[in-house]
Amino acid sequence: MFKCDSPWRNLLHIELSRYTLNGRVADLGGSIKSEYTRFLNGDHAIEIVNMDENTNPDFSFDLEKPLALESGAYDGVLCINTLEHIFDYKNLLSEINRILKNDGTLILAVPFLVQIH
Predict the structure, then answer these.
(1) What is the distance of C-alpha 16 from the center of its chain?
(2) Which residues pair with 45 in a beta bridge?
(3) What does the pLDDT look like over 49-108, one tens digit per residue?
(4) Domains in the chain and their CATH numbers?
(5) Which pLDDT does position 57 carry in this prediction?
(6) Strand bridging mode 100-109 / 74-80
(7) Alpha carbons within 13 A on the beta-carbon side of 82
(8) pTM higher than 0.85
């Protein structure tokens, strides 16, 4: 069904295909080139949040700082292969909680089992 060179990505794609997200979705650390978003089901509008301008973000923010995004504005948040790069991960998780609607969905994936890579 999903064919990719990376077993991790294949598993990620399989898991993402089980989710349905509707509405406004923030992709923290994502990119216009991120292939994983095509595996999500639902009627969603993905907004990319990344400080790297090469990713063609909708919002250019440092994820280590408070996000200049409206509280409770997002139906979903994707944080795929990003959290392991964030030193103050507790702050980012708090910000995710703040921008998500009360019944919002967080899809989080962290691929590495070591603290530093």
Answers:
(1) 11
(2) 24
(3) 999 999 999 999 999 999 999 999 999 999 999 998 999 999 999 999 999 999 999 999
(4) 7-109 (3.40.50.150)
(5) 96
(6) parallel
(7) 25
(8) yes
The DSSP string of 19-81 is -B--EEEEEET--TT-GGGGG-BSSEEEEEE-S-GGG--SB---TTS---S-TT-EEEEEEES
**Which pLDDT belongs to residue 35?**
87
* Cβ burial 11-22 (10 Å sphere, 16+ → b, else e): ebbeebeeeebe
User: How many C-beta neighbours within 10 Å does residue 7 have?
Assistant: 8
Q: CB of 78 within 8 A of CB of 25? A: yes
Q: Which residues contact 9 (CB under 8 A, 6 or more apart)?
A: 2, 36
- Burial (CB count within 10 angstroms: exposed 0-12, middle 13-18, buried 19+), residue 79: buried
Q: Are 49 and 67 in contact (CB under 8 A)?
A: yes
Name residue 50's amino acid. Answer: N
